[in-house]
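WARN no homologs supplied; continuing
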Amino acid sequence: MMTISYEYEGALYVNLTNRCDCACVFCLRHNGHKGSIYADNLWLEHEPTRQEALDNLLARDFSQYRELVFCGFGEPMYRTDDIVWLVDELKKRVPNLPPVRINTNGHANLF
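OK structure emitted
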């Protein structure tokens, strides 16, 4: 099963890509997944389309979450245009959308 979104500590996390330009020693990708309850399901069999991600997110009850976080097994900014589209669509459809945050390595300008 492919995990597009998952809950963690009161937030909803969005996993859009496996791609990453780093090899951080603390990352789940490189440390044997120690301590993660999601590591086995985060590797995506394919990058979800915008619509697949939107459908997955719209199935959630956003009133349960303190924030929406774009962060998964890869660097989310590889999908910048898709993140912007998703947030715009969610703002149209989800009343009181929680704050949105992106966990990024900061290298978006490089790619």
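The chain has a mean pLDDT of 87.
OK
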